Amino acid sequence: MVQNRAGGYGFKISPLRQLERFLILGTFSGTYYATAYEMTKENVANALKVVNSHPREVAKLLEEVARNNRAYKWDPLLFTLAALFLSPDTEGRRLAEEVFPVVVRTGYHLLLFMRYYRYLRGRASLLRHVRRAIRRWFSSQDDERLAYQVLKYLRREGFAMWDVLRLAHPKPENPWRSEFYRFVSDYPRRRKRHIETGLLTRNPYVRAFLRLREGDMSPSDVARYIRDNAVVREFVPGRYLRYDEVWDALTDSMPYVALLRNLFNLHRRGILRTREMEIAERIRSGAERLKPNPLYPLLAYVSLSDEDGIPRSIINALEEAVIRSAASRTPLGLKLLFALDVSGSMNWYVSAYHTRLWQLGITLAWVMAQREPRMDFLAFDMYVDWETTERFSPSLTLSELLSIPVSSGGTDVSVPIEWALEKGREYDMIVIFTDEETWAGDEHPAQTLSRYRRKVKPDTRLVVIAASPTAYSVGDPKDPLTLQVVGFDPTVMDVLGTFYWLSALE
Predict the structure, then answer these.
(1) Residue 382: what pLDDT?
(2) How confident is the model at residue 381 (pLDDT cuts 50, 70, 90)?
(3) Which of 215, 354, 390, 430 is the most buried (most CB within 10 A)?
């Protein structure tokens, strides 16, 4: 065991599991006990160490997190991918090429990858295997998607697409690409020059880019052009984004996640009120169809819940979107105890998520309670927070739950297990959502769990859901009936069921 930042003790988790926490949770806002810089420094050092020692496992982890959309922000994945490309192990560099198209999905991801690669290597010049991976990324896009990704993210993160073309030299597979690569490479110098060839402008995204960036149009003309051509916001120059009619037109073709992120802006401009039923239906259907990370609709909900004048249909649609994107389709059917840590450190405001850690936990509990009628809920710090326990109900709205006052005292993660022991309640699984900075109490949670299993139910599973990317856990990693889970994503509920039934077979 190792000492945690709060002065208590936890089980040291493996460097690979710490890397998983870093990839999914990030270190953008730090924690109650450590700044973002301290957390990032620790996790970056661990990531570089694991990349060098276990490149195959790192590549597999990158692919799993990216394919299942488990990360809310992509920065840690792209940083780790860049490190894998610089691994001294030949196998690691080969695996980095394989997972590159899985992790680098968009033009923005490509530029952010270049930023981290330059930082780690000390210069931007590309090694052969990196150049090959980028060339394949370009060649794997069809002409329309290529134009969309390159022009939408023409310049980001201190890099521009013309820099990438200059360094990677992707081979044009057809005459249009040859002209397009030439246009992008020369864009800083020929920005105002008329495009003479008709070949380039056969692509609708190139036409939209040139028309909006280099044309002289009124806001109403821009709005009409956006509607006629399904133009996205990044193609529109900033001088036009001051007008409500332009934003109203952009709403028609706004991608799902972009719509969620811009709901407050649309509310401020009065568009939510005038188009509420249409937007509410898009929120519901998008969650069902795309299964995004539940943090997207949750954070949109948080940003709107305290605002006056938000249409109730929008609030209801966001609540449904959280459930649809996070909940398992099949109930576990188990007797569960969901214990939420509401201690002072869990009251830490995570600016990257625009919410507090305990609010993420109570949302996850609320989602689970919609599907699990046999689930009990408990909030704790050094003691059981009875007020919160009595008030929790799946019938409450998210707004009511997120506004519940919590005590925010010290942290003793053994409290919910001790409570279940004293009550003699038999649970198939105890789920604890915590940042794992436990320090109070006379007994470690693992010891309390051992007593509970001896006296109440010997095969009770313990699941610890980590709320921060620490290097330790309150759950014993050697215990086959204890599972470490990280993140708030669409796989959590399915993971709990899989763990229960697989461990029952052993």
Answers:
(1) 85
(2) confident
(3) 430
Residue 325 near residue 490, CB atoms below 8 Å? yes
Distance, CA of 333 to CA of 353 (rounded, Å):
31
Q: What is the reported pLDDT for 39? A: 62
Amino acid at 479: D
What's 308's DSSP letter? T
Report d(CA 41, CA 45) in Å as an integer: 6
Distance CA 290, CA 258 (A): 13
Cα(83)–Cα(51) distance, integer angstroms = 7
- 54 occurs within a structural domain: yes
**Euclidean distance between CA atoms 403 and 298, whole angstroms:** 14
Among 439, 384, 435, which Cα is nearest to 410's?
A: 439
Report the domain count for the chain: 2
Q: Does residue 362 carry a pLDDT above 80?
A: yes
Angle at 343 between CA 342 and CA 344, to 5 degrees: 125
Distance, in Å, from the CA atom of 251 to the CA atom of 490, rounded to the nearest integer, reads: 26
Domain of 96 in residue numbering reads as 27-70+73-201
pLDDT at position 33 is 39
Burial class (CB in 10 A: 0-12, 13-18, 19+), 344: middle
| The pairing of beta strand 155-156 with beta strand 159-160 | antiparallel
User: Which range is least confidently modeled, 112-121, 310-319, 399-408, 437-446?
Assistant: 437-446
Check whether residue 41 and residue 185 sit in a common domain: yes
**To the nearest whole percent, how much of the chain has pLDDT over 90?**
42
The Cα 502–Cα 335 span in angstroms is 17
DSSP 396-462: S-HHHHHT---------TTHHHHHHHHHT---SEEEEEE------SSS-HHHHHHHHHHHT-TT-EE
* 145 membership: H or E segment, kind and range: helix 143-152
As a whole number of Å, the CA-based R_g of the chain is 25
Q: Which of 199, 258, 263 is nearest to 233 (CA)?
A: 258
**Tokens at residue 375, please?**
């689930």
Contacts of residue 149, Cβ cutoff 8 Å, sequence gap at least 6: 106, 107, 110, 141
**The amino acid at 224:** R
Here the CATH number for the domain that contains residue 452 is: 3.40.50.410
Tokens of 395: 């019938």
* Domain's final residue, options 201, 233, 254: 201
The answer to the question of residue 341 being in a domain is yes
Instruction: State pTM to two decimals.
Output: 0.77
**pLDDT tens for residues 133-145?**
999 999 999 999 9
Of the candidates 149, 182, 201, which is a domain's last residue?
201
Asked whether residue 146 is assigned to any structural domain, the reply reads: yes
Together in a domain, 195 and 343: no
> H or E stretch including 378?
strand 375-380
